[in-house]
Specification:
The chain is mainly α and 148 residues long. Helices cover 63% and strands 0% of the residues. The protein contains eight helices and no strands.
Length: 148
Amino acid sequence: MRFLNVMLQLEWKNEKKTILDEYGTEIVRYAETWADMMEERMDNGEKLEDIAQETSHRADVNRITGNMYGIAVRLLSAAWVHGERLRVWHNGKYGVPPEKEGVVNPAIITLPEGMSVDDLVEKLKDNGYVTTEIMTKDDLERLKNGVL
């Protein structure tokens, strides 16, 4: 993984030493693996925007969560030599313009205007997601109201 500069590389290595749990360790492992996979393909002439999704899935050998993915994107966008392009690509998937700062958290559910929780549950079911194993309809309603 190539860093923006030596200071960020040292900071990354020092921060890795302080991670004491599997959750944080997996985020860093995933981020480094993903960056390495993308770098290898970009070194062979491919564009980040064309390979980011596929390599993301290939790097995800331990089934990371949406929140872990979002944290990995945030870490890479701050330290990796191609981080800004990754951030723009990632945010673009959620309709966020390139000039807007920050990284979209894909673990947050935002209902489009006019969509009810019932509509969301049906759409998830129609697309092969089994929402009842993840959260109940009541959980989704509480989430919508900011209570969960």
